[in-house]
Design a protein that fits this description.
The protein is mainly α. 56% of the residues lie in helices and 9% in strands.
Length: 70
């Protein structure tokens, strides 16, 4: 499972979805899907812009957790 930490990063900087969309020039729906962790795919440009905004590495934005086999 891939976990997106966008909501945590936004909370730390007190940013709203509209703020992130405006600052990154990404579509609001893209930010919402990542915030809600319902996105099924993410473009590299999206990852690049979010990492720039939050001054973070990809591993801080996304985390991988192996699926529980049970």
């Amino acid at each position: 499972m891939i976990k997106c930490n966008l909501s945590r990063l936004m909370g730390e900087k007190k940013l709203k979805i509209a703020d992130v969309a405006r600052l990154t020039e990404l579509h609001r729906n893209t930010i919402t899907l990542l915030y809600d962790e319902t996105a099924t795919r993410v473009d590299l440009i999206t990852i690049d812009r979010l990492c720039r905004l939050f001054e973070c590495k990809v591993g801080e934005l996304f985390e991988y957790f192996p699926d529980d086999p049970s």
